[in-house]
């Protein structure tokens, strides 16, 4: 993440750099993104860049954090179901809604997706992504899953934190194997990915009930 002094920089200066970086990541992908092109587009010098950031992974984390803010409401707006079937229906609704909003959203979504895909292949980059908004979203999901345990929808033999860690690792594998590496995924590809991801989440997390 950027150094604390980046938060104290003028807002227009922050936005110029993050806008240029989002455009570069969206069009070139994380691996091929050029810091020099980003700095030229934002009107930054190399010295000023390294005054605020350590390296490209830090900049990518800042871009991802800004874009992710737009989608925190998806997890804040979750309804609190009373039955296991309603819990999984609400989870599916959140998956579908996130896909729809992301593909209908601003161009920064493409940067977020391509950085996310790079995370699945780059452990160093993934380690930088524990941003404030990532932690906030994780806490909201954990709260929802704890409610799922309370109503008998989610297994209780594993702590929620363990389940979320398994699900996150599983998601990275699915991103690496199901989504394209050299371009932004289409809506159909994201829908198919979300369908498989939700199915895997449910298989890992759902309480298994004996059949009569």
How would you concisely characterize the structure shown here?
It contains twelve helices and no strands. With 212 residues, it is mainly α.
Q: Which structural class fits the helix and strand makeup?
A: mainly alpha
Number of contiguous helices: 12
Overall shape: it is elongated
Classified by CATH, the class of the largest domain is Mainly Alpha
List the quaternary state of the chains: single chain
Q: What is the domain tally?
A: 2
Q: Label the CATH architecture of the largest domain.
A: Orthogonal Bundle
Unreliable runs, pLDDT <50, ≥5 residues?
none
Describe this structure in words.
- With 212 residues, this protein is mainly alpha-helical.
- The chain folds into two domains: 4-65, Arc Repressor Mutant, subunit A (Orthogonal Bundle); 70-205, Tetracycline Repressor, domain 2 (Orthogonal Bundle), CATH 1.10.357.
- It has twelve helices and no strands.
- Helix 2 (11-32) packs antiparallel against helix 3, helix 7 (84-104) packs antiparallel against helix 12 and helix 11 (160-178) runs antiparallel to helix 12.
- The protein is elongated, with a radius of gyration of 19 Å.
Would you spell out the secondary-structure blueprint of this structure?
Blueprint: H1 4-7, H2 11-32, H3 35-42, H4 46-52, H5 56-68, H6 73-76, H7 84-104, H8 108-119, H9 123-127, H10 132-150, H11 160-178, H12 187-205
Helix pairs in contact: 2-3, 2-5, 2-8, 5-8, 7-12, 11-12
């Amino acid at each position: 993440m950027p150094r604390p002094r980046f938060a104290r920089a003028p807002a227009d200066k922050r936005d110029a750099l993050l806008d240029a970086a989002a455009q570069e990541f969206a069009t070139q992908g994380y691996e091929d993104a050029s810091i020099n092109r980003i700095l030229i587009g934002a009107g930054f010098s190399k010295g000023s860049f390294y005054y605020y950031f350590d390296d490209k992974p830090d900049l990518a984390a800042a871009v991802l954090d800004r874009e992710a803010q737009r989608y925190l409401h998806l997890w804040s707006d979750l309804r609190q179901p009373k039955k296991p079937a309603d819990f999984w229906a609400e989870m599916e609704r959140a998956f579908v809604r996130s896909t729809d909003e992301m593909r209908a959203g601003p161009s920064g979504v493409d940067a977020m997706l391509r950085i996310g895909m790079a995370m699945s292949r780059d452990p160093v980059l993934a380690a930088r992504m524990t941003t404030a908004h990532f932690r906030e979203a994780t806490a909201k999901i954990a709260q929802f899953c704890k409610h799922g345990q309370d109503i008998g929808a989610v297994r209780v033999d594993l702590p929620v934190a363990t389940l979320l860690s398994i699900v996150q690792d599983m998601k990275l594998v699915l991103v690496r194997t199901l989504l394209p590496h050299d371009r932004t995924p289409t809506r159909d590809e994201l829908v198919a990915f979300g369908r498989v991801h939700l199915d895997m989440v449910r298989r890992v997390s759902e309480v298994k009930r004996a059949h009569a």
